[in-house]
Specification:
Number of strands: 20
Strand content: 15-25%
Structural class: alpha+beta
Helix content: 40-55%
Largest sheet: 5 strands, mixed
């Protein structure tokens, strides 16, 4: 069954709108015909199909194609691939059909956009396998990723038609992978919209409140911007510069994130906007010089804040972003961020990859720039993925870091690393062999550990040894995907070698006792004696020399029933202890959460430690069947939703009202130290609120103290009331709930 007459009119209207957008990329009638052929095939393939909202499905590929051309700036082939991106996945058409009808390049792009089916490993997440396939297309054609981001953007714009559990899954994927990926490909506007849409559906009340407050303060904010801009406009016009100046308000998501991170109200966010100056660069002098000249004109008017100068012109970000950022003291004692960039820099900042290549082609430059270097690094990582799709996705996520530092080799070559990187990350960035053989480092000519965190401007020399080997604990000390993958690969090879060596050693030792068959019965006797929970662990420890087999004969001949029982009893107790949450009550009951259908076993997540009153989401653990309860804003929940979205509980998780319980909450404190402060704090917590303190730690230095307070509260409202009371104590500067 096809579409109705009303549907046909609606589809034709959207198609005509798309073709108007494509006028700027179609160089010939053949290009227009190519797009039309893709449109009519997609329309025929999706005939009669509707989206959950009820609208014709064909409107989705048209919308994706329009985003591709209007908001990303790609060309004809990308528009065709966007129109066809769901045809192979959802209809009887095959990739081979696409190749016959549209050629090998389009077929390859459509294949990259088609979900895998029937080839998933049983021990990995289907979503992670799918993401791996899509991300691997970066090794061949970046446009596939860009179309996928456009597809996700339109799905997010129409997410309201989906049920709650689907919204949690899709927003989790988006905030965990797609938004950072959009940023790394230079699509800043799309990245911001994806984040805002995630917040709109996950936290609708907070989104509406911030939006309303932004609207209410718009007139006052615009008045300030006009006063701030007036002398700058006069100076730039006097210098004969063609420019546009605007006040860009921060995204709702970025404002909310700052409120969450600092636990402050909207009224205390002072950097709600930034002033952006985009100018038409002259052929001479260089763009960099012209940017600094404008900076000089601005700082003649307003005093700059020295520690807030960001020069991304001399050293652009890895995604190609170039601009000069400075924070200056504006009217009324308000700090204002000013961004200075050329029109070329603006295009790259907004459209990323597509604009990057357009300008590169225009200048006929074959030189490798920052974006090329990052893309090469990503392709190297993608071409040697780990076997486990979950590890692959987590490692790839590490390459989407935002905050960067610049460090130097002994010869003065600059290297970019994520903020928080260590000397080990630097070593692996130089070469895998250097990382694997690292035993120490010289940072600014001083000996340091390989796990030492680096800072911008550091000069590093790695000290290596032929006998050095990577250690498992190194995984906790690295932040880059390249370092993590190299260490994991080495440890995996080492473990496999140890397993093979250990098995051979055990078999050889058993032969000395005339035991020629390494049976399950023998292993069940040996494993508890050496406190190993699997045969691989036993073989690995033997091969690594951790276990010697001097007492093997005694173990085999002994009646080990009691020892086995003792081992497994201890093992079970250890597992049960791991599952306990940090909470207490008079009756020591399970945390009071309930499900709207039945009463499965619930566990409070250790990563975010939610308490009654917090908005929560349930995630079913596939191994135990238990439902892990996370705060809705938990970063770990976003990771789980991105990788195991089908395990998100469909129905709403609600806190039970009939159990009076106490939950652990950690509070961070900061302020001016004084005599009697601790006494006042204890009085408020234990006296005024009758709250039990689990732990308290205060560290004072140079008249300033920082502390951590662990208290038991009944719900979020009582915690917030306690925080408000603590804020009123003399000397307290900041109080906030610890965010895990």
């Amino acid at each position: 069954m096809g579409y109705t007459e009303e549907d046909e009119i609606l589809i034709r209207k959207h198609r005509d709108d798309l073709m108007r957008s494509c006028e700027k990329i179609c160089r010939s009638e053949a290009d227009r015909e190519f797009i039309n052929r893709a449109f009519f095939l997609a329309k025929e393939a999706h005939a009669g199909v509707r989206r959950r909202s009820g609208e014709p499905y064909m409107l989705h590929p048209i919308a994706v194609a329009k985003i591709v051309v209007d908001e990303i700036g790609l060309g004809v082939k990308s528009v065709v691939a966007a129109l066809l991106h769901d045809v192979v996945e959802d209809t009887d058409y095959t990739v081979e059909d696409m190749e016959q009808l549209f050629g090998p390049k389009i077929a390859s792009m459509v294949d990259g956009l088609t979900k895998m089916s029937g080839v998933f490993k049983s021990d990995t997440s289907q979503q992670a396998e799918y993401f791996r396939k899509v991300l691997l297309t970066l090794s061949d054609d970046v446009r596939v990723i860009l179309i996928k981001i456009a597809d996700r953007l339109h799905n997010m714009r129409t997410l309201g038609a989906m049920p709650l559990h689907k919204q949690i899954k899709i927003t989790g994927e988006t905030i965990y992978l797609f938004a950072p990926l959009a940023y790394r490909l230079g699509l800043y506007a799309i990245k911001s919209e994806l984040e805002d849409l995630c917040m709109k559906y996950r936290f609708p009340q907070q989104y509406a409140e911030i939006t309303q407050k932004l609207n209410e303060t718009e007139i006052e904010r615009q008045d300030f911007i006009n006063r701030f801009n007036a002398p700058i406009i006069e100076a730039l016009k006097r210098d004969g510069i063609q420019f546009e100046i605007s006040g860009r308000v921060k995204s709702v998501y970025s404002i909310w994130s700052k409120m969450q991170r600092k636990q402050i109200p909207f009224e205390e966010i002072y950097d709600l906007f930034a002033i952006r100056i985009v100018f038409q660069a002259l052929p001479f002098p260089p763009e960099k010089t012209q940017c600094w000249q404008i900076y000089s004109s601005i700082t003649d008017i307003y005093t700059p804040k020295p520690d807030r100068l960001r020069d991304w012109i001399s050293i652009p970000k890895d995604n190609g972003y170039e601009a000069l950022h400075s924070t200056v003291m504006g009217p009324d004692g308000v700090w204002v961020e000013v961004q200075i960039r050329t029109q070329r820099m603006e295009d790259i900042a907004e459209r990323g990859f597509a604009a990057h290549w357009k300008y590169k082609k225009a200048t006929i430059s074959q030189n490798e720039d920052e974006f090329d270097k990052w893309l090469k690094k990503i392709r190297t990582a993608l071409n040697s993925p780990t076997e486990n799709a979950i590890d692959f996705l987590d490692n790839f996520k590490l390459s989407l870091y935002i905050s960067e530092i610049v460090v130097f080799t002994p010869k003065g070559e600059s290297r970019k690393l994520p903020n928080g990187a260590t000397a080990l990350d630097f070593a692996y960035d130089i070469h895998t062999k250097v990382g694997n053989g690292a035993i120490g480092a010289k940072i600014n000519h001083k000996i340091a550990s390989v796990t030492t965190e680096l800072h911008s401007g550091d000069q590093i020399e790695i000290i290596t040894s032929d006998t050095a080997r990577p250690k498992a604990e190194w995984l906790e000390a690295v932040t880059t995907a390249k370092a993590r993958q190299a260490i994991q690969a080495f440890l995996k090879r080492e473990q496999q070698n140890n397993i093979e060596r250990g098995m051979a050693m055990l078999e050889q030792r058993l032969k000395e006792f005339n035991i020629n068959n390494l049976s399950g019965r023998i292993l069940r006797k040996i494993m508890p004696a050496y406190e190993c929970r699997s045969k691989d662990e036993l073989y690995s420890k033997i091969g690594a020399g951790i276990i010697n087999l001097h007492d093997l004969e005694k173990i085999i001949k002994s009646n080990s029933k009691n020892k086995i029982l003792k081992f497994w009893t201890l093992f079970i107790k250890e597992r049960e202890a791991d599952d306990e949450t940090a909470q207490t009550s008079d009756s020591e009951e399970t945390p009071a959460v309930r499900h709207s259908e039945s009463e499965p076993e619930f566990v409070i997540a250790d990563c975010c430690n939610p308490i009654p009153g917090d908005s929560v989401v349930g995630f079913r653990d596939a191994a135990t069947g238990k439902i892990i309860v996370h705060k809705a804003s938990c970063n770990e929940l976003n990771r789980l939703a991105a990788q195991f979205g089908k395990n998100i509980i469909k129905d709403e998780i609600k806190w039970s009202q009939h159990k009076k319980m106490s939950f652990l909450a950690n509070i961070e404190l900061r302020g001016i130290d004084r005599i009697g402060l601790l006494l006042d704090l204890a009085q408020v917590v234990t006296g005024d609120f009758s709250t039990n303190i689990r732990e308290i730690g205060i560290h004072s230095h140079d008249g300033v103290f920082e502390g951590r307070l662990g208290v038991y509260v009944s719900d979020a409202d009582s915690l917030n009331a306690l925080l408000d009371k603590i804020r009123k104590i003399k000397g307290i500067d900041s109080v906030k709930r610890e965010i895990n």
